[in-house]
Specification:
Blueprint: H1 2-31, E1 35-47, E2 51-62, H2 65-85, E3 93-105, E4 113-127, H3 130-142, E5 147-154, H4 159-183, E6 188-199, E7 208-210, E8 226-238
Antiparallel strand pairs: 1-8, 2-4, 2-5, 3-4, 5-7, 6-8
Helix pairs in contact: 2-3
Amino acid sequence: MRKILLTALLLGTATLTAASAEAQQAAITQAIAGTRLDITATGSVTRVPDIAVISAGVVTRSATAGGAIRDAAARMARVRSELTRAGVADRDIQTSNISLNPDYVYENNQPPKLNGYNASNQLSVRFRNIADAGKIIDALVAVGANQINGPTLTLDHPETALDEARTKAIALGRARADLYARSLGMRVVRVVAVSESGGYSPPPPMPMMMARAESSADSKIDSGEQKLDISVAMTFELQ
């Protein structure tokens, strides 16, 4: 009975939402005395990322569960110390995962045989100076980190850039409406409605890579540029 009632409530909510949207559109149409024009415009800006986020961790293996966890904790303590020494603030270091899994050997027609345990300990690290991130990653590998994921490059404060994109989108939408109006021998009387979509979403991180402590290569992170888009739907009245 509860399931039936919940289903009925959900269907009722969906119906009300759809009805509300239709009513809103009908109200807009009724409010327009002339010709209705709907425009969608996108404003774009580019910025250089100022934040790099990586996942740095250790993966260990031992014959016992306790041994694997202790080894991972000890190595991660060295990784944390190196981050602190490099000037990374505590607020930019966050534990993202701790896991322990048994390792079984499977042979034909034989029951699984326990072969030890694998432990993983990972941190999410935010670098506010991208230029130094590569050197710090190399230092982390040297002190025991053997699993690196990232980076995700992002903006610390994207609001100003997004406002610029909004301004461009509105200007483009209005200019496009004027173009349509002139082509039709009409003029734009007013803006009836405006709605926004889009926004800022950081790009996905690069694939996981396993690091080796004996590597002598110097890592470098290139910031490049990121594009931020804001789309607006605008309704105009033409006469």
